[in-house]
Structures are given as structure tokens and as C-alpha cells.
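Researcher: Can you fold this with acetyl coenzyme *A in place?
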Amino acid sequence: MMMSRSYIAGTGSYLPERRVTNEELAQSIDTSDEWIVSRTGINERRIAADGELTSDLAYKAAIRALEHAKTSADEIDLIVLATTTPDRTFPSTATRVQSMLNMKGGAAFDVQAVCSGFIYALSVADNFIRAGQAETVLVIGAETFSRILDWEDRTTCVLFGDGAGAVVLKKNKEFSHDDDPGKTRGILTTHLHSDGDHADLLYVDGGPSSTQTTGHVRMIGREVFRHAVINLAAVVDEALEANGYTRADIDWLVPHQANKRILDSTARKLDMPPERVVITVDRHANTSAASIPLALDEAVKDGRIKDDNLVLLEAMGGGLTWGAALVRW
Ligand code: ACO
């Protein structure tokens, strides 16, 4: 049987210029660098400038990914943009980016799965390509999470940052299923889950239909932590099993960067040596849907992720939502 899959042809990312350190936060709320570092591993985060929107960050990341993939905007037939902090309730931020890129054709839409958003968007894009409905897809994770934080709530505001990352997905050549498909470059499988019964663990207390306000992030941190470690280890094993691989086969784990203790606990549960886990949470904090493509871009551009590596992406976020993607680079 002949088959095809999508592959990541290029990556790009963008961070706002303004760095906010833990010390700076400690000047306005009752916290300390020591507390934040020891509980989360976060040293600093980037915060978008006044008037700098999610679409601005997304556009800059997209331009870099297109350059890396040596692809022009008019070759794109779909944009899938993951965000929880859209410029406006509608139209989608994806259509705004489409216009900024001067794309005259194709389609563009947003996906909303909070911190799992990039895995969801990647899965949607991969399935469009597999189904033959698209050949070149721009997948973006972009957030201005700072805009939905309660800056007086020390239990949440210290954890998040702003940023964007993007990948260009392309359809690769057809190959025979019998030719060891797990060795052919591309997204091997994606795995998505959600459990709406846990919506109250992590949510925003506003929205157009409920309060007609934007609202702020609310979270029961300990419970989120507990679910994260269990769900992430399970979905990683599910992805490996689906492809006949074991944990030892993973060259790089690129997790959603929620906090260092979740990353360490998940890595321990998976017997992954820390040097094979890509970590950016110390400098970016939790950028929600942007964190995986930001981390991926860093590890690709600094040469850690190389051709033929087996790369596992995983995330968990509000919803609850969680998922993974196994990629042969
Ligand atoms: N500075 C100082 N003290 C603080 C701060 C702060 N920023 N935040 C909370 N505290 C205090 C609390 O008030 C509490 O004080 P008390 O004992 O006097 O009541 C104490 O620290 C302990 O609070 P806990 O919430 O129990 O602290 P915990 O050890 O659970 O750490 C944390 C909190 C870091 C949020 C942790 O629960 C966690 O990492 N949870 C995961 C949540 C997460 O990462 N969410 C991101 C979105 S979901 C995702 O991306 C997977």
C-alpha cells in the first residue's frame, strides 16, 4: 500500500523584546525570585508591548518559519493558528495573519485547546495533508497570555509569558507502507485527548457568552500538576506503542513548557535523561500554545535536533486537553 505523510519543512519563532524578571515582579506582588525559581524553574518571561497583538507575534514567527522552509506565502493553502488570546473574539487571528502575509488564496482558522493548542493544530494540519485537502500548511502557536492574567494574583501571574512559534508542514513523497514507514521523514502519528469534567481546574472567568468580559486565568495548581504528570506519561506511551517504539528510541522530548517540576516529573516517569529534554521554561515561562514551537525552533536552529531523530512533542492544558505527536525529523 502506498502512503504519504506530512513533514516539518521549517520552523520559526518570535519573542517580544521586553524581559520581565522575577525580581521585577517581586516589586509589585508578594513573591520572590527564590519562590518562583524553586517551584517553577522560571527566571524570566517576555511580555508584549502595548499595542503588540497576538497576530503581530504570530506573523513574525511565521515569516521566520517560511524563510527556514524556503517557502513563499503564496504556496500556503492553509493556516491553522492555535491561541487562547486572539486579537478579537472574531474574526480569527489566523485570518489576520493571512492578510499580513498578503496571502490571496487558501483558508485560515484558529484552534482553541489552550496549552495543548499547538499539538491540536499540528494534528489538524497533518490530517488535512493526509486527506489530500492541503499540501503546504502554516501551523502557528501564538499567545499574549499577559493580557488575561490577574496581575494581583501571585499564584498565576508569575507562571506565564508571551511569544509565538510556527512550523511549515508539507506533504512528502508517497512511499510504500512496507518500506519501514517509521523511518520515513514526517509526522508519524498524533494523539489528542480531552476531559471536560475537569474544566474548573484551569479556566478563564470571563467570555463573550458568559460575562461579556475577557476575564482572567484561574487555576488550582496542585490538581493541574497531578493530572499533567499522569496524562502526559500515558499519551507519550500511547504514541510510542502506536508506532512500535519504546521510550529508549526517543532522541528528543519537546514538551509544553508549563513548569520545570512538571517537566522533571514527566521525564522521570518516562526514564528520559534530562539532557534529551528541550527546556526553555526558565527564559520563556509558560507561553501556552506557543511553547512547543518556540522550544522546537530553538533546538532545531542550535543543531540539537538533527535529520532522522525521533522527536516527541507533548502538551497538557485547560479543558483539560492533552496530546502528543511523534515526528521522524
Ligand atoms: N510567590 C510566593 N508564594 C506563593 C506564590 C508566589 N508566586 N504563589 C503561591 N504562593 C504560596 C501560596 O499562597 C501558598 O501559601 P500558604 O501555604 O501560606 O497558603 C504556598 O505558596 C503554597 O502554594 P501551593 O499552590 O500549594 O504551591 P505549589 O507547591 O503547589 O506550587 C504551582 C504552585 C507552582 C502553581 C504548582 O502547583 C504547579 O506547578 N502547578 C502546575 C500548574 C501549571 O503549571 N499550570 C500551567 C498551566 S497548565 C499547563 O500548562 C500544564
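Model: Folded with acetyl coenzyme *A in place. The pocket of acetyl coenzyme *A is lined by residues 31, 35-36, 39-40, 115, 154-155, 158-159, 202, 219, 221-222, 224-225, 228, 256, 258-259, 261-262, 286, 316-317 (CB under 6 Å).
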